[in-house]
């Protein structure tokens, strides 16, 4: 990845397209703070990703192509776990869960262990958990991989 200059305004959708090994995932990992650029800086919501990582993390959600989920938990337990990580109150979590679960057709999976679910269902669980804290920026890497 060389000389990237990217600005995405509030409310805009932006897709990074390119052939295999073009640097799409590397660029995304720099944006979300998983790897450090060798030069320059990455800013999200006017915050430096390297200098203010916690502040950036609270403003952003990231779902990788193969998200890590705690397999032994149920989706409901995972949503509550995620909500607590972001300091959400129980009432906030309940409202988000009530709103997002039907949108992603997860109603019938809430009490099953995550390890028993398909990759596509797991992907939807990751997306819901990422959206729960109402991020300003939502970054998905390969969002369609394995979706049901």
What do these coordinates show?
- With 148 residues, this protein is mainly α.
- It has helices spanning 24-31, 53-59, 75-85, 90-103, 119-131; strands at residues 43-44, 47-48, 60-63, 137-140.
- It has a domain at 75-140.
- The strands form two sheets. It has a two-stranded antiparallel sheet. Strands 3-4 form a two-stranded parallel sheet.
- A hairpin with a 2-residue loop joins strand 1 (43-44) and strand 2.
- The two termini are 32 Å apart.
- GO terms for molecular function: ATP binding; ATP hydrolysis activity.
- Keywords: ATP-binding, Nucleotide-binding, Transport.
- Residues 2-144 form the ABC transporter domain.
- It comes from marine metagenome.
């Amino acid at each position: 990845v060389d000389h990237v200059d990217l600005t995405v305004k509030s409310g805009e959708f932006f897709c990074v397209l390119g052939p295999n090994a073009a640097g799409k995932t590397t660029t995304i990992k720099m944006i979300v703070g998983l790897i450090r650029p060798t030069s320059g800086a990455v800013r999200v919501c006017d915050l430096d990703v390297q200098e203010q990582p916690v502040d950036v993390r609270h403003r952003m959600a990231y779902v990788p192509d193969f998200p890590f989920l705690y397999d032994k938990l149920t989706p409901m337990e995972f949503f509550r776990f995620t909500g607590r990580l972001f300091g959400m109150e129980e009432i906030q979590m309940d409202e988000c869960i009530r709103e997002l679960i039907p949108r992603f057709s997860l109603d019938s999976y809430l009490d099953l262990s995550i390890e028993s679910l398909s990759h596509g269902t797991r992907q939807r669980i990751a997306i819901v958990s990422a959206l729960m804290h109402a991020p300003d920026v939502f970054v998905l890497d390969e969002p369609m991989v394995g979706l049901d």
